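Question: Now follow the chain.
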Amino acid sequence: MASDRMARYVLGVDAGQTAVKAVVHDERLRAVGVGRRSSPVDRSVPRHAERPQDALWSAAAEAIAEAVAASGVDPQQIVAVGIAGHGDGLHLVDAAGAPVGPAITAMDSRAHAEADELSADPERMRVVLERSGQEPTPGAAGNLLRWLLRHDPERVRAADAMLFCKDVIRLRLAGGIATDYSDATASFLDTATASWSPEVLEAYGLPADLMRLLPPLHSSGDIVGHVLPAAAELTGLAVGTPVVAGMHDVQAASIGMGALVPGRLALVAGSFSTNGVTTTRPDVDPRWQSRLSIRPDLRIAMSTSATASPSLDWVLRLLGVRDDAARDRLFAEAAALDPQEQVPLVLPFLFDSPLGAASSAALAGVRGWHTPAHVLRGTLEGIVLMHIWHTRALGERFDWEEPVVLGGGIARAPLYVQLVANALRSPVTVVQNEEAGAFGAAAVAGTSVGLFASVEAAQELVERSVPVVPTAESAGYWAGVIRSFDEATEALGPWWAARAREEAAQAAGDVDGVEAAGSGEGGA
């Protein structure tokens, strides 16, 4: 009993695009209590994806309370808290930490015109890429701030700080306005100096006085606050428990996959296809993000696109798959197909594409004898092809060791794991930790209070499967699939561009029509 009383635990929180997970871990980073809450995103306005900041905190507080209660641990034995959250987006607060408008998530694309304007200026884009390490999406803070200045400038004037998802949760839990390097990289950080950059702010076309919004910077493991009494009452944590700065969820997941070590490649097939190699090199390229990690001397070169789970979910709905049992049956039928049988080529660009905004999804090579199982395997192959696209880009500058580490929801399917191994021609090992992001957040927090000697040591506790190796007979098949993908995307390029021009002309015509109608009414 005495040893039980002396045991120490650490809490990791992972706040994603639509859900918050909280996990209490023991000293071997084994989960002893888990809590989950949905954090729904409001998409009622076209291109908008946002949620009230209060709702984000409520989801996190309830998930933490559930995890603490489920663990049965004395809250005094939980010695530290780490929080990871989705990157990008925009969370504005005032000087007291109160929200200024809803949280805008990374999936928001209202600032697409602002993103296009920046992309059309090579010199400004060069400054952003070379200084911050990445070309921004419409959901990046810089583009969203430009949109707000055009459409809701009072909201920007009322704000005193710009935060990220995990910062909002930590602010409510422990107080203090701050962020860490891994999230700051996605906005106005100069990665060479690990400091806020007026030049990057200017390159976005933003006024210099917005430097006032940029919060103090910390390494992810810095203790920046302690659990407040009001938060303790909501969460079941003990007042005064140390809370670290936290990190971007990809950094946390990389730790939870045992891959935040230079020369390791981690692939995640989740809401995004995330493909990152840990490095100390500062190489930049439009095809990947060079993000500072939990400390400034460590980076992840990360090439991503929203081409994984969202694409699979769409296809399953299209095929009439409505429950887990039907999904399992269809996966079993797809796995039973001859591995070398030709299936439809699927370009999974339903919501995003690394080939540009004009690219759309496609289904090619369909035959009358193809069944839903063929379409499903083709979709899985299409998602695997995005790992190929992203890792080919990374492979031009970086080397990595084998086996490749794979995680994410789709990685629970053995068929998918084998397809990844076959396509990459590399052994693939699958992370067995249920919540890699929460694991990583807990590992950093535990290291900060001496529970682990280092984050590297904590990663040795990650459980991974026996590597799955590529089959010899699949080499020729996958060479053909990859060649077909390259040929199809090249052939469709001009068609995509023409469609984009037509849509732009139609949109301009609609605007002209509205303005003309408005002028007519005014004259009357």
Summary: The radius of gyration is 23 Å.
